[in-house]
Write a structure and sequence with these properties.
With 297 residues, the protein is of the alpha/beta class. The protein folds into two domains: 40 residues; 254 residues, TIM Barrel. The chain has an eight-stranded parallel sheet with strand order 3-2-1-8-7-6-5-4. Strand 7, helix 9 and strand 8 form a beta-alpha-beta unit. Helix 4 packs parallel to helix 5, helix 5 crosses helix 6 and helix 8 runs parallel beside helix 9. The longest helix has 38 residues. The radius of gyration is 25 Å and the shape is globular. It starts with a helix and ends with a helix. Keywords: Isomerase, Pyruvate. Pfam families: AP_endonuc_2. GO terms for molecular function: isomerase activity. It comes from Chitinophaga skermanii. This is Hydroxypyruvate isomerase.
């Protein structure tokens, strides 16, 4: 009958409209949830940075823009010629790089014959760091090459004391990185936290601190949280990476970074934690974003 068909058509139209409305509402909610997640601000307990060298295929300007969007405050290990790129993106340099053709990880402060050259190099870097308004400058012990750990401390202290008054005057902290000598940096001398702490005691300046690299020290000594609690007064900077592999800090590796970040925060730390993992996944910025969220306690 004509009346029956009209009612059926009307019912179908109402049902179709209701389904469309429900689908649209669901889609709107999903879009809104996604936008909220993208725009969600970090909690602010941890100050985040990232090491530029891990993103070698990406222009520094692009890394800065992506980092700023995620919510990072800083970039690590930048050379003076690139300071302005970081600054123009509204970021700071958390720790300045100090490697050139003459000096670096394997050739550092543990040899007296290096001191004259290193003093000249570091005084120039201290000037440039201070002038830019940055506060930290990295340094390295160098490799042992048969040198005892005791003599290494004596030599490093002797050389670094020559620049400490200048660093203090310019308000720049000289920060020695703890690196593993088991996997990545064979024979590197500053490869245990206690060695670095003894060096800091020998130097006796608040402008000398340690960079506690969580990845490296997990490989060398483990016991990460206890070490942070015991020696945090000597630490002014932290680096992260997954163990083993030095890749993403997700559940593909053994460290539980939220607990480590909580331990760092509980010490009253006000400095930076920098991501120094080498992204293995195709979308490197997505890996960085994930790492920041993992560490955002």
């Amino acid at each position: 009958m004509p009346g029956t068909n009209s009612r059926r058509d009307a019912i179908k139209k109402v049902a179709t409209l209701a389904l469309a409305t429900t689908t649209l509402s669901s889609l709107t909610k999903r879009v809104a949830a996604h936008e909220a997640a993208v725009d969600e601000k970090l909690k602010g307990k941890i100050r985040h940075s990232v090491c530029a060298w891990c993103y070698g295929g990406m222009k520094l300007d692009d890394l800065c823009k992506a980092s700023k969007k995620i919510g990072l405050e800083a970039i690590d290990l930048i050379d003076p010629p690139d300071f302005d790129i970081v600054k123009k993106n509204g970021l700071t340099v958390a720790i300045v790089a100090a490697i050139n053709k003459d000096w670096g990880i394997t050739k550092g402060w543990n040899r007296v014959e290096h001191h004259d050259g290193l003093v000249k190099y570091y005084e120039d870097l201290i000037d440039k760091t201070s002038k830019a308004g940055f506060e930290q400058l990295i340094c390295f012990s160098g490799n042992r090459n048969g040198l005892s750990d005791e003599q290494g401390i004596i030599n490093c202290a002797q050389g670094l004391k020559r620049i400490m008054s200048y660093a203090e005057k310019k308000k720049v902290t000289i920060v020695m990185e703890l690196l593993n000598s088991k996997v990545d940096h064979k024979d590197y001398q500053c490869d245990h936290t206690v060695w670095g702490v003894e060096l800091a005691k020998a130097i006796g300046s608040d402008r000398f601190k340690l960079l506690y690299d969580i990845y490296h020290m997990q490989i060398m000594e483990g016991d990460v949280i206890r070490t942070i609690r015991d020696y945090h007064p000597y630490i002014s900077h932290y680096h992260t990476a997954g163990v083993p592999g030095r890749n993403e800090i997700d559940d593909s590796q053994e460290l539980f970074y939220p607990a480590i970040m909580k331990a760092i925060y509980d010490t009253g730390f006000k400095g930076f934690v920098a991501q120094e993992f080498i992204p293995k996944k195709e979308n490197k910025i997505a890996s960085l974003d994930q790492a920041i969220k993992i560490c955002d306690i």
